[in-house]
Each structure stands twice: as C-alpha cells, then as structure tokens.
Amino acid sequence: MRFSASYFENEYAHFWIRNSILFFEYKPNVVIDLTVAQRIVADRIQIQNEKAYPILCDIRGIVDSDKAARDYLAQSGSVLTKAVSLVGHQSISLIITSFYLKIGKPSVPTKLFTDESAALAFLEAYK
Q: Model's pTM, two decimal places?
C-alpha cells in the first residue's frame, strides 16, 4: 500500500488526483464483494481528505462483483463525490453496468463511457 497527498494504491486499485478530478483505476482481475467495496470506499475517502471531487473510475480491471458490493458502491460509494464517469470495455461488462445504473440508481450523476476523453468531458461541469 502506497500513499501520498495525491496518490494512493491498495491491492485492488490506484487512486490519484489531477486537475481537480479524482482518478480511480481498478487493478486487473479484481473481484468485488462487500468487504472489498467497503475497503475501496474507505481508501478513496482517505485520499480525498474531506473534499468532494468528480471521479473518473476505470472499471476495466473488474472481472466480477456481487450484488451487495454493487449496492454499497451505488449508495455509500457516492460519499464525497460530485459526479462519476465509469470507463469500461465494449463487452458484456458494459451491458451489466448499464443495467446496474438503471436499477441501482447511484445518488450522484453517473454515466458509462468507453472513451476516457468523453468521460473527462462529462466531469468538467462538476469541477
């Protein structure tokens, strides 16, 4: 685990802050259950130091997640977030994530993208 004022890494993800946006990238082959989701949110909040940010979340490393984890991330995972851009692959994970966004109803503006530049453009309004 590495931590600095603007960078943090745990066994599941890398987090960094650049240009008033929090970048969050899952490591390859991550499986998210409720315990992992709670750890990820706690670590994200730590790097944010009580400041809300728009978040670009690269979900391409996730290989699976359970319902409890998805529910937790959609609700409690929105603490100190202004908006979230999810960046994923053009694959079945996009279909599942799209379905989840409709059913889970995250508490902040959240959109799914396959292109990082479009994801960043969406977040500009929330800086």
A: 0.84
